[in-house]
UniProtKB/TrEMBL annotation, chain A:
Keywords annotated in UniProt: ATP-binding, Nodulation, Nucleotide-binding, Transport
Name of the protein in question: ABC transporter ATP-binding protein
Family label: Belongs to the ABC transporter superfamily.
ATP-binding listed as a keyword: yes
Lineage: Bacteria, Pseudomonadati, Bacteroidota, Flavobacteriia, Flavobacteriales
UniProtKB/TrEMBL annotation, chain B:
Membrane topology: Multi-pass membrane protein
Protein keywords: Cell membrane, Membrane, Transmembrane, Transmembrane helix
Organism of derivation: Bizionia myxarmorum
Name recorded for this polypeptide: ABC transporter permease
PANTHER family membership: MEMBRANE COMPONENT OF ABC TRANSPORTER YHHJ-RELATED (PTHR30294), MULTIDRUG ABC TRANSPORTER PERMEASE YBHS-RELATED (PTHR30294:SF29)
Transmembrane segments: 21-42, 180-201, 242-265, 299-317, 337-357, 364-383, 389-411
Domain of life: Bacteria
């Protein structure tokens, strides 16, 4: 499948401050794309460029094989990090207005809103004012408004902030469902566990530059250190440990088990295979634990940012 | 996609349905009318309050000129000393005592005239008594020199200069006053409109910023469209309010003056000017001459110029108000930016009311009717006095060019400002935004 969205060499300066420096990303059709980076890295600027809120100084964006144009507004649903609603407007009126701005007819918007209100248990909210709702309730309204026009591209900037765990799961499931129905999702967040859970592609932006991107699995492979976490019960632990540190790079570790075995992280050298380690271990005692350490998104994030 | 109508509709209806807007719309004319009625009523009471003034005339020559009037009663005291008269006046609770001493020569009669009262007397009363005395004493002096008063009286003449322009158009004082009222009303209306609804636009921009909905909106709409929609929607709400005010005000005015029989027209300054002018020029029917003066106004020109200058001037200022709203986070930060906007506006009104009245085609009024930030108000005030079309056109072109520039400028500030939170921007920051 091709890319729904491509940004090519996008740069943006605000006065002397460079917000984006030659950033390119490819967002594959039907993926959930994690846009990661520390605060102030330039994620929001990139998202605003995609939304045509900010015009880039150079570079261009392609959506659905076309250069970004005015009419693409209706193909994008955007939930900004700084979000809110008109406080004194009624929920229904407001949702209708925002949907119409995205190009839906009033009748169509009304129909779809009825469906969504029903789906997210918001039946009697239509005539309530936003200021009467809790923060989480307002977030639900906002989510609906973002997805109502069934855009091809959904952009969520920190979508889970302000949700209680139950609603967060509800929204997460809705995002996954929308992806399954064909939408492509760009997902900007600091919460690495949700990246791990949802994203299949990521790009990491740091100090206005993209420093990493690709499939999450590929990146993990790239960042893995050939390290294994092992647990072994041996009769002579001391001898085993000396022997291990002669053959491999060993660091202490701890994890929860039922027994009281020797627990170590073992990094393999280039010419060593996991089987070498395993057969060595089985010859020395009873192996109770043998796991390859796969870097978490969090590890990758921290390491990539540090390396730059 | 053109969302302008949608935005205008939302802005209009949220304004019009707003509770405080509705209350303001209904209450303001009532309060205004009530105020006018109270003022009119009070001045009537003041006029009607009866005063009794005692007169002790030792010369015996003066007291006959003081005739009882509607609200002043004169009592002539006789055969008592000044001290006794004072005590009597005080114990009877009368307003005051006019004492005229026994003068030997009319020439220095005024040295013998005194007025005693408990509090300092009303200036109008003193003036009235003075003018009566002056007239009477002058007559006495003339008589003592053997002049026939009747002859003088019969040869007194009043003159009303009939004014006519070179084009052969007759004008009168009433005409000038009608022009003044029209020009002044138009200029002042624009001034009020800009201040009231400019502020409303500004608040509505700030509201979008503080409620953080702005980013959602501008991901669907161009900021320029949003800004224009806001300005137009709010202005339409303003026009609605104004029309309701005028209708409601007119209605209430008629009802109240009907019920209380108070002539509110007389209480207003323009009404006083008019009635004064009519007595000066001995025109019997004020209403008729006002209507005549009204028809003599360059009406078509007035209406067109009013619409054009009003719209262009209003848009010029309101775009700046929108830009200010975008630049700040809350209303308290707006003061330093509002000041430079209000300055030319207030200046325009002052120039209008002082120099245009003095000389509608003088250098200062003419210059300021070309400067774009003052021209809408000053020009609107000048037009009833007849401004050459080329001047109006040039002024309008300058105004529209400036208006296009300020809208562009405001849109730049708006576009960047609506996404800026936190620090209150300085003028330098704002200038930088234009380059973004």
């Amino acid at each position: 499948m091709g890319n729904l969205l491509e940004a090519h060499n996008v740069s943006k300066k605000f006065g002397n401050y460079t917000a984006l420096n030659n950033v390119s990303i490819d967002v594959p059709q039907g993926s959930i794309f994690g846009l990661l980076g520390p605060n102030g890295a330039g994620k929001t600027t990139l998202i605003r460029v995609i939304n045509q809120i900010t015009m880039p100084d150079s570079g261009h964006v392609i959506l659905d094989n076309q250069p970004l144009q005015n009419h693409h507004v209706k193909d994008i649903g955007y939930l900004p990090e700084e979000r809110g609603l008109y406080k004194s407007m009624k929920v229904g009126e407001q949702a209708l207005y925002l949907a119409q701005l995205k190009g839906l007819s009033k009748a169509e918007a009304r129909k779809r809103l009825a469906y969504w209100f029903d789906r997210l248990d918001m039946g009697d909210w239509w005539n309530k004012k936003i200021q009467e709702l809790s923060k989480g309730m307002a977030q639900k309204v906002q989510f609906i408004v973002t997805v109502l026009h069934e855009p091809k591209l959904l952009i969520f900037d920190e979508p889970f902030s302000g949700f209680d765990p139950i609603n967060a799961i509800l929204i997460k499931d809705e995002i996954l469902r929308l992806r399954d129905e064909g939408a492509t999702v760009i997902f900007s967040t600091h919460r690495m566990e949700s990246v791990e859970e949802l994203c299949d592609h990521i790009a990491l932006i740091h100090q206005s530059n993209k420093i990493l991107d690709g499939k999450l699995i590929d990146i993990k492979k790239q960042f893995k250190t050939n390290t294994f976490e092992i647990g072994i019960r041996a009769t002579n632990e001391l001898a085993l440990e000396i022997e291990l540190s002669e053959k491999f790079t060993v660091t202490p570790t701890s994890f929860k088990t039922l027994g009281n075995e020797l627990k170590r992280n073992i990094k393999l050298a280039e010419n060593q295979s996991p089987n070498d380690l395993l057969s060595f271990l089985t010859s020395r005692g009873e192996v109770s634990h043998f796991v390859e350490i796969i870097p978490t998104a969090n590890d990758i994030f921290i390491q990539a940012v540090k390396n730059n | 996609m053109n969302h302008l109508p949608l935005i205008i509709k939302r802005e209009y209806f949220t304004k019009v349905k707003n509770k405080s807007f509705i209350i303001m719309t209904v209450l303001s004319p009532m309060i205004m009318i009530a105020l006018i009625a109270v003022v009119a009523y009070l001045s009537q009471i003041n006029k009607n309050s009866e005063r009794t003034i005692a007169i002790l005339d030792e010369s015996g020559l003066v007291s006959p000129i003081f005739q009882n009037s509607e609200n002043t009663e004169y009592i002539v005291l006789e055969n008592m000393s000044l001290e006794a008269a004072k005590t009597l006046t005080e114990t009877q609770g009368n307003y005051g005592l006019l004492y005229i001493g026994k003068f030997t020569d009319v020439k220095d009669a005024d040295k013998f005239i005194k007025f005693y009262s408990e509090e300092s007397p009303s200036i109008t009363l003193i003036n009235r008594m003075e003018s009566k005395l002056e007239k009477h004493l002058t007559d006495l002096k003339l008589e003592s020199q053997g002049v026939d008063i009747e002859k003088i009286k019969s040869s007194e003449t009043r003159v009303t200069i009939t004014q006519e322009s070179f084009m052969g158009q007759k004008t009168s004082k009433i005409d000038s006053i009608v022009k003044l009222v029209f020009g002044g009303a138009a200029g002042y209306l624009l001034f009020m409109f800009i201040i009231i609804y400019g502020n409303m636009i500004m608040r509505s921009v700030i509201e979008e910023k503080t409620s953080r909905i702005i980013e959602i909106i501008i991901s669907s709409v161009k900021p320029m469209q949003l800004m224009l929609g806001k300005i137009i929607g709010t202005s339409l709400a303003g026009v609605t309010q104004f029309v309701i005010w005028i209708i409601l005000g007119g209605l209430l005015l008629t009802i109240i003056s009907g019920i209380f029989g108070i002539n509110l027209m007389e209480a207003s300054p323009s009404g006083q000017l008019l009635s004064q002018a009519s007595t000066d020029s001995n025109i019997p029917d004020v209403a008729q001459s006002v209507i005549m003066a009204f028809y003599k106004l360059p009406l078509t020109n007035l209406i067109f110029a009013f619409l054009l200058f009003f719209i262009a001037g209003y848009l010029l200022y309101s775009s700046l108000y929108a830009a200010i709203g975008a630049a700040v986070d809350n209303e308290t930060d707006t003061q330093q930016f509002l000041f430079p906007i209000l300055m030319p506006l207030i200046l325009a009104v002052y120039i209008g009311f002082f120099t245009v009245i003095e000389n509608p085609h003088g250098t200062i009024s003419t210059i300021f009717s070309f400067i774009p930030f003052t021209s809408p108000v000053v020009m609107l005030m000048r037009i009833p006095f007849g401004v050459p079309i080329w001047q109006q056109v040039v002024s309008l072109i300058i105004l529209i060019a400036t208006f296009i520039f300020t809208v562009w400028f405001a849109a730049k500030i708006y576009r960047v400002g609506i996404l800026m939170y936190g620090k209150k921007p300085s003028y330098r920051d704002i200038l930088k935004w234009i380059k973004y």
